[in-house]
Structure formats: structure tokens, C-alpha cells
Records
---
Amino acid sequence: MILLGSTGSIGVNTLQIASRFGLSVEALVAGSQIELLNEQIAQFNPRFVCVANKEDVPKVNHEKVFYAQEGILEILELCSSNLVVNALVGFVGLAPTIKTLQLGKKLALANKESLVVAGHLLDCSKITPIDSEHFGLWYLQNGRAVSKMTIMASGGALRDTPLDELASQTPTSALQHPNWAMGKKITIDSATMTNKLFELLEARWLFDIQNLDALIEPRSIMHAMIDFVDGCSCVQLANADMKLPIAYAL
């Protein structure tokens, strides 16, 4: 595989799955956590490596090191692997998403911004989402005709905070997610419920459906629910562990 975002939460979990099942890693793309990246290089021996900043290139223990977004796109061209895991955070993930689809490679997508910003431009039939809610919807649908899809939200770190105390909350308190161990940006977005808005937009394009809703499920055991046109409803339940959707995506 080609792993974009190897030192983030999704990237680290993806490499654990790769190690467990003996999957090869052709390229590692990381940001600025060079020490962790070097550990990953030593374990997985990739052909190519890419970092965010040019000044970090000499610090990387590898002969073929690229940098910045141009480096990511060049690596995608050079690699023979047909699977790209895009776990980049933010809009930097959009161009690699488009490039992956243009090259005809399979895309396992954890980068939310790609779908939020450009979902209407992407061929979502070639995308497998790495997300507990969208994995749950895919797992339940199984080709059946759908009336409505619902994704679940934990409510985040500030869910039970009284309204009159919200203004005094700090980033530190918002980062204390009760159920999930995630990166900082998505944890903050969870606390503000912005992440759930993103996921509704993602579901709109992934499943070509507009009848969508979100519900708060505080334990993060229920992840998705589908109401089918025949009157049946199904709920997907699983532990709060991203390794499950990652494993299915791979």
C-alpha cells in the first residue's frame, strides 16, 4: 500500500493492521514527526518516503525522500501499489485523492475534507471510507434499497457541559474525548459537533442519498442505522476501535 499520513492516529493504526496481516508498504508519507517516521521506515522498509517540509529531508533515514504536496503526487505516480490509504489531515489531502482516482488506484479514504469540499466531483464508487459511521452504513446496506441513513455521534468531550459553562471551556478540556483516542483536530471537531456535519456531507456523496440524520449515542457502541424501504431498520454496533473499518478498507 501507499500510506499518506503514516504518523497520525489513523496511519499508526493502519500500520498495526499491516504488520498483523503481513501487508507490504511501498511508500510512507508523514508530516513533521520524524522520529516516529524513522521507526516506521525501519520496520516496513518502504521504497519511497515523503515529509511535509524540505528542511526535514536530511533527518529522514532513507535514500529516496520527497517533500511537500508535489512530492506526494510524484510518489503516487512512481508507486506500483494499487491501494492508497489517504489519512492526511486537512485540505492537503484533496489533491492526492484526485490524483489517486485519476491513476485508477483503489482509495481507502480517511481524509474528510476531500469529500466535504469535492464530493460532487469524485467517483465515490472507487472510494472505501475509513470511518466508523460510514463503515457501519456500508456494512448494513448490503445492496438493499434504503429509505434513510442515520449516523451516530458521541457528543464529544463537552456533551454534558451545562450551556452556561461552555464559554469558559478550554482546548484542553475539549480534547478529553470520553470514548475515542483520535488526533487533536478531529477531537476538537467532535466537541463542537463540526465533525458530525462533515460526516453527513461525506455520507451524502458516498451513498448518493439525501435523507440523512444524526443522533447522539453517548457510549459510541452504535455507529450507524439504516431504515430500508421494506420497513425494516438495522443498527450496526461495534467497539470504539478504528482498526475494524481500517481492516475492512484494506
Note: The chain has two domains: 2-130, 133-240.
---
Amino acid sequence: MNETVLLIPSYQPNEETLAFLKVLTNAITVPIVVVDDGSGEHSRSLFEEMETYGITVLSYAENKGKGYALKQGMRYIVAHYPEASWLVTADSDGQHTLPDIQQMIATYLPISGELLLGVRQFYFQQTPLRSWLGNRLTTLIYYVSTGLWLSDTQTGLRKFACHDVPELLEISGDRFEYEMNQLLVLPTKGYHFSTLPITTVYEEKNQGSHFQLIRDSYLVYRPLLTFLVASLSSSLIDVTLFFLLSLVLGESSGALLFATTLARVLSGLYNYQMNRTMVFHSQTSIRHSFWKYGVLFIAQLLLSWLGVSWFARLLPSVLISKIIVDSCLFVASFIIQRRMVFAN
């Protein structure tokens, strides 16, 4: 029998959480596993009440984070529900409605290799400012980093095959960054994403969420920002060298070609090493990735030279032309490197 198990990590639940879970257990027939992420003694009675609803509760003493709780739940489900084919994760802070959870459970998913995401729509007038800004920024950075557009990268309502749990357990992260790491790592392993529109809900302007803005924003954005820092720092080296060389050599077409070439070679070597070791943690050999990087490097070099030469006729500053052209090129290059050059 193909069965789905619902997994809900929970930290310091309240009476509203309890009421929702009671309704949920009466409305769905799939097993529910709740992970008590070190909520403490004052929450014990609430978790004991959940058990009377037929919910399996896993507990440990110290708060470890959402990613840790999800991994603990996955391990338990794989071990105790061998007949289960799929696993759905949902949040306990009221952001996922009963119809959305039911639809997620009912939606077909292949037995392996795909992640189904319940995505919300964030309208400025209807969304708390912190949540709107956080989601828009993350979506943009994620797109630049991967070339994939997801309107909701922070959704906790997800469905995947139990067969894929070992792969998911290998992904790093014990707090809120774990779910973002899933979105970064799985495409590099050939996984596909599909989306299911869900209701956007914020309980009391999202006060039920335990996402701590400074600490957890850093953890969520860290893998994405690593990508951008490597690209921006190499771009800074490139632009600085080009500007200094253009001051010395002048702005003729030949001088621009030489300045572009030398600046790009030096910044390219720096960028290759940064991307291979610090950004993509590539396991492919240097010989395998370097020739691909070389082809991309030459293409960028020519496009940069042609673009800067053309824009220099229209704009008063060569530096402005350089920044415009290379800003577009490094975004395209970033996507190509992730998908083709340094793909493990």
C-alpha cells in the first residue's frame, strides 16, 4: 500500500497549535509524526495531549533547530513506516491550512527524484513587511544563484518520496537554513521541483514563527551569499584592473581589448579557484572543469570587449559601460558555472 506520512516539527506550541492538530487528525487518515524540538517542561502537557489524538510525538531535551527536527522525523518514519512511499512536511505555526495539507497529500508525486513545494503568493499590501522583504530578497538571490525561479523559497509545506530520505539526510544544516540547502543541493543531483499554490496565512502577523531575523537570515542566506561574494569580488578585481589599465593605455579599441584581456585573465583565475573550492565545492577534477571554464571565460571576454566598446560610444564613462556589461555577464556566467562547469 502506498502511504503518506505527515511530519510536523514543533517548538513551544500553543493552544491554537493543539486545536489545529485535533482538527487535522479528524480530517486526514495518514499517520502524523510531531517532533518536539526541545520545547521544555512547560510544553510537555501539550505534547501529551497530542498523543491522545493518535499522533506520534518524538522528543529530546535541548532545542536543536528545525532542520535537526526534520531529520530526526525522517529517520523515524523510514524506520517505523517501511510501507510509506511519501513524506509531507508542514509547519506548526498556523501557516498551512487544512485544505492545503490535504491537497498536498493527495497530489501525485513520482516515487523518486522530485520535490513538491506548496508555494504562497506574497502581495505587499497583505504581507508583514519583514516577511515580504525576506522572501523577495531570498527569491532574487536564489534565482541569481541557480537560474531557477521559485516564488516561495521559505515554504515548509513540502512532499517528497521516502526513497529520497537518505539523500535529504546528507544535506547540511540544523536550523532554518536546512530547507534552503535542500533547494540548493537537490537540483545539482538531478532532482526536479514542482509547485502547488497554497493559501498565504500569517497568524498574528507571523508571531508564531520562531525564525529569528538576524541569526536565521544569516544561516538561510549564507550558502547563497557565498556564491555572490565570489562573483562580486572577482568582478571588483576585474573592474579595478581594467580601470587602472585604461587610465594608462587610453580608450582606443586596441587598448580596451588589452585592458579587458589582462584584467579578465587575472580575475578569472581567482574566480575559478574560488568557485571550484569555496562556492561549488566541486568534486570534479581540475582538468574536467577547467576546459569548460576556459570556454566560458573566452566567451565572456569577447562579449565584454564588444559590449564595452559599443556602450562606450553612448555613455560618458568607460567605467560605467564596463559595470553595465559585466553585471549582465556575471549573472549569466554564474548560472552556467553552477549547471555545467562545476556540476558534480
Note: Strands lie at 3-10, 32-37, 56-60, 84-89, 114-119, 158-161, 192-197.
---
Amino acid sequence: MISDVFIRRPVTSIVISVVILLIGTISILNLPVSQYPDISPPVISVSGIFTGADAQTVEQTVATPIETQVNGTPGMAFLQSNSTSDGRMSMNVTFEVGTNVDIAALDVQNRVSVAEPVLPEQVQRLGLTVRKRNPTILMVAGIFSPQGSHDIKFLDNYANV
């Protein structure tokens, strides 16, 4: 039997294992990943700081003018903004799946530039940051209970420990 060959010749089994490992590594590096379809929508992040302002002031003087300009960008699915009590504003502009992220980032940057003159001087001086975000990692590992013996809360706690 083939198992007897590998038991009697451990060096041969190690060499075969290393060869299989090398072939697998080479194959993974040559996979045409760029040909896979996009499954997650592109996201552009806009952030700014208004030092010394509370959340309501940041919302009214920074977030609202930017939202007004960015809203209606071609291919935009939805927009989410967050203003914090330490003067930070962050906004995520999510686009439809298949939208070119470079063009979307340029569109958002241009619209933010249009909104800049109406922003407070301190925000203009510190500047606004427009970045492409890549939310392509949707799920790294999936955990489930094969017989349904554990509920979702247990599995969530198990995964986070």
C-alpha cells in the first residue's frame, strides 16, 4: 500500500509534502484575482477637525455644507456622517458596486473643494482629508453550530474571545 511507502521512507514523504506546498504557493500567487467581480461597494472617507467645537457646531458648520455638496455625486448609494464632541467630523460616501473608486474619489474631492470656502477658517487651515477605503474583506472566517446546539450569542462570544 502507499501508506507503507511513506512510513518506510520519511524523507520521501517530506520532500513530496514540500513540493506540494511550493506548487500551492505558486498557484495562489498566479490566481487571476483582478478578474473576480466586485462584491463590496467602494467607500470614500472624508474627515476634518474643528478644534474646540462641540458635536452640534461641527455638524452645523462643517458636516452639513459638505453633505450638501457631496450629495448627488454620480453613482452614490448613500452617505453617512458622524460629528463628535472633540471636534472631529467623519463622513463615509458609499457608491454602487462597480463604480470606479478613483473617479468617485476625484468627484468627492472636487465637491469637498467647492464646500471649503463656507467652512470655518480653522477647518480650512487644518484641511479636510479625502481617502479611498477598501472594505473588500467581508468575512475572514465563518463560525456556525453544525447541530444547532449553540445560539448566535454563544458563537459571537466564542469568536470574540
Note: The radius of gyration is 25 Å.
---
Amino acid sequence: MAENGYASLMDPAPERAKRGAFFFLTLFASIVFAMWDLARFLWGGTGVPSTLNMGVGIGLTVLMLISLVPVFGAQRKLNQGDDKGILSSMGALLVVAVIMICGIVYSWTSLPISSGYGGIYDITTGWFLLHFVAAILAFLATIMKGSRTPERAKRERWVSYNVLMYWGGMVVLWVVFFGIFYLA
């Protein structure tokens, strides 16, 4: 706890949180490896189906990479103690998450499940869809907390930081997903 009574980003995490973070990272690493291994096994070098809309995949990937700009801006504002300043960045990321959901749902229309590529593609993008919904809820909660209870937002700055790290992890996983499913 800092001298002013507020928690800072540098407060040590409890041991349980460290174990949870390790489990979370291990889970994501195993999912990424499973996607890569399954893609190699199922398609055996047959390439990406022609019905998969490459333009949508490239557009969504570029959007995800550009979304790192508000993430880094919000982290800088958090480190400076500007709790109100992160609200615009969280709002921008909220819009990106909604666009990503629309793009994923649109991409489902271009790939028939009978292609053999569609089943695992739909399951994996559905997994991303759930995480984008979770990110939207986290962004909404952070925005509401920051705008309605600024004192609580100051005490719980680490929550905003974790939401931003969650989004950064989703960006990394999306880029890996793009490499596996669109560039295989």
C-alpha cells in the first residue's frame, strides 16, 4: 500500500494471484499450440480454402494491431495517475471489440462447415468471440467505475491495468490465429 493509502501498480500481488496468472498463461499457450498442431494435422499443407475471406482477416488483424495504440496510451496515463484520461482509450477499445465481433460473425458466412476447415475455424473464432464479449464487459465496467466512482478507480488502478493487459494478450493471440488460419 502506498503512503497516501492508495494501492499502486507496483504493489505485490498475492501468491494466489501469481498462481492464477501462471495457469492463465499456460492455458493460452496450450490453446495456441493445439491450434497450430491441429491445423498441421487436418490440412496437411492443403492451404487456405478459397472461400475464406482474406480481406476480412487482414482488416481485423490490422485493426487489432492498431488497437495497441490506445492500450499503450492508457497504460502511460495510468502510470502518470490520470485515471480519467484512460476513459477515452477504453471507449476506443470498446468500439474495436464490437467491430471485431461483427467481423467474426461476417467471416462465418464465407466458409461452409463442409469444407473441413470450417469446423475448427468456427470453434476457434467462437472462442475469440466469447473473449471479445468478456473484454466489452470489462471495458464497460472500467468506464463506469472511472466515471461514477473516481475514488474507487484510483484505489483499484490495477483493475484497469489488468483489463489493458487482457486486451494486449488477445491481440497477440489474434495475430497467432491469423497466421495459423489465414496464412497456413
Note: Residues 112 and 118 are 6 Å apart (CA to CA).
